[in-house]
Amino acid sequence: EDVFLAVREIDLAIEVDSTNSRYYASKAIYCGYLAIMDALPFNDAFKISKEAAEKALLLNSLDPEAHYAMLVLSFVFEWDIDKAQYHGKQALIYRPNYPDALFAGSLIDIVSQNYENAEDGVRKALMIDPFSPSMKYYYAAILVRLDRIEEALNMINEGLKLAPTNTNSYQLKGIILTRLGEYEKAILHYNTLPTSPNKTILYNAGIGIVYAAMGNREKAIEYLEKIKEEKQQINVAYEENALVIINTLLGD
Fold it and tell me: Residue 86 above 90 pLDDT?
């Protein structure tokens, strides 16, 4: 709801000043978020984001946010890694200390299997913005991809100290505990997944994955059926597909 509100307010800003590239860039980026969260139909979000990002770059080809908007467009909607990488580098030419572009570069390095450089951007972003729970979350996610699980746990715990009810960070900690074989802790953790500062849920998808990782076939199938019935959806960046993971761990 807040992201939709932000987009509406950006549209009001555009009505006042239709020559500001940053407004269009912000609109493109936020529509990317709405697509990731499945809050806006993918094709609709893509159309809005593409028009806004192209307009931003047309208005000011030196605007780092315009280039970051094109990175989001390329990565989220078009899955064009080379294009995303190009615009990420352009954004950093015009603003070397741009945290979002820095961590996005790290994510692209992971996808490109450029593991040696994967930490560089997000580490620098965290130096610039050391109290950002989001940056600590992204760093932890990258460490998981690099199979450095103990380090990932330390990083995500730092993020949760700053934002205890951050859904993304809380969910990722459950994944990390499962990877470490801390199964009972992971199940207990998933009993209170925050979906807002004032609401928690029993996260059956995560619990089912834990039971499958434990080799408890009966409980894993029990939770697999619950997941199918509930069609539980939460807006989490690093959510694992329980229908795939549970069946894989069970050898099905």
Answer: yes
